[in-house]
Amino acid sequence: MDDPILTAVAVALSTRAVEGLTDAAREALASVMHLVRRKATDHRALRAALTAEPASTEPASGEGASGEGASGEGASGEGDDRAVGLRRALVDAAAGDPGFDQELRRRWATFHQTTVRADAVTNTVSGQVTGPVVQARDISGGVHVGLPAQQHPQQ
Length: 155
Description:
single chain, globular, mainly alpha
C-alpha cells in the first residue's frame, strides 16, 4: 500500500522544487530535508536514493513542491525513478525507526500547513500520464476532453 505522506516527501525531495514557496515553507521543507539527510548517514538505501542524480532540478511550469498546478509535464522517466527509489528508501527507513517516522510526519505536516491556505486547491499528478489531465479550482459549466483523432474508434 502506498503511503501518501512518504510519497509526497519523496516527490518534494527528488524534484528539489522550492520555487514559489514562502520563506516559512522553505524553512519547513529544509527541516524535512535535514532530518532525511541525517537519517541517511546510517541508512545505506536512503543515502543512495538521496545522492541519485535528478532528471531535472527545474519543476514543471507552475509547479511547486506540493505539485500545485502540475501539468503532467516531466512526470515520467528518470525523475519518476528517483522519486520511486526515494519513496522506497523512506518507507524502509520509517519502518525500521518509528522515531524517525513520527518526526518525519510531524515535520511534513508543518511544511504542508505552510503551503496550504484555507481557500487553496492542491492538484497533484505523479507517475506517467498517458491521457488527458484536467486540474482546476473553479469551473463554471461543463468540461469536455475529446480524444485525439488517432484514438477515435473506427466507424
